[in-house]
Design a protein that fits this description.
Elements: H1 2-22, E1 28-29, H2 46-55, E2 62-63, H3 64-69, H4 72-83, H5 96-118, H6 132-135, E3 137-141, E4 144-146, H7 148-159, H8 165-168, H9 190-202, E5 208-211, E6 214-218, H10 220-223, H11 225-228, H12 231-238, H13 240-243, E7 248-252, E8 260-261
Helix pairs in contact: 2-4, 4-5, 5-7
């Protein structure tokens, strides 16, 4: 009887080990573009602005099908990210804003590339269960592999200085995400860009919506309570008329439907 039990445990253990290996963080390889040389002393994000202006419309809708048809410009920018980062080239990123702008652009560029490469999908949660899109796919940044979750929780968090607007700059390819901008983040204009994004977010009914005396809030405010604190106070600082006289609030479930066209 004991021998039979031992024989059963061996294949079970192999299945468990195999499953853990298959589900390991970063275990799925993302895009692997050729490293591209980066000219100058800093880091030029204008190639990413060109990509954004070509595939994102004024409503924030993303044309992922266009990215699939013409992958070259995005891949070239990914190649720049692969070659250079604040970690391996700190002399290029001397200010906090320079580092933060790089990480925000990298996050959004990685998302665009991953969705492009997984099309056709209608919801990024379809690709991998348990939010695996964010912790299973590995990307190349400064010669090292990194997942979206690690990029957000370690690199971005370390330089965001508890500014809640940064969380609104991370577009997760979903309908409930804030709108993706058509211009890349830049060191010299980052403060204004984040402020403008925050103002746009509170004017977006998918982020904040007043229904009678109740405020319907995007789940982002709940996820990142450490930065936003009481979201009513934060929203009120930007749009006091929206929260004045409200009696209650509720968090709305996040809609992970894709924020664009991914082909058939």
């Amino acid at each position: 009887m004991r021998l039979t039990s031992t024989k059963l445990l061996i294949p079970i253990a192999l299945v468990v080990v195999g499953a853990l290996f298959w589900l390991r963080p970063g275990g799925v390889s993302g895009p692997t573009p050729e490293a591209q040389p980066v000219a100058g002393k800093g880091f030029d994000h204008s190639p990413f602005s060109a990509v954004l202006s070509a595939v994102v419309d004024e409503t924030g809708h993303v044309n992922y099908s266009a990215l699939r048809k013409t992958p070259g410009p995005l891949d070239a920018y990914l190649g720049m990210l692969r070659a250079v980062s604040p970690a391996n080239s700190p002399h290029r990123f001397r200010s906090n804003d320079a580092r933060l702008a790089y990480y925000l652009n990298a996050y959004n560029a990685f998302i665009l590339a991953a969705v492009r490469d997984h099309c056709p999908i209608q919801n990024i949660q379809e690709a991998y269960f348990g939010g695996g899109f964010f912790w299973r796919i590995s990307f190349l940044m400064g010669g090292k592999e990194i997942t979206l979750s690690t990029l957000e929780s370690e690199r971005i968090r370390s330089v965001m200085q508890r500014n809640p607007a940064v969380r609104l700059a991370l577009v997760k390819a979903a309908i409930s995400s804030p709108k993706l901008g058509r211009v890349a983040f830049q060191e010299e204009s980052l403060t204004k860009q984040l402020n403008d994004m925050a103002k746009a977010a509170v004017g977006n009914p998918l982020i904040v919506k007043r229904v009678g005396d109740e405020l319907h809030l995007n789940a982002i405010f709940q996820w990142y309570e450490a930065e936003f604190g009481d979201p009513i106070n934060w929203i009120g600082g930007l749009a006091p008329e929206l929260v004045e006289g409200h009696k209650s609030k509720k968090y709305v479930p996040y809609d992970w439907s894709l924020n664009g066209d991914c082909g058939q």
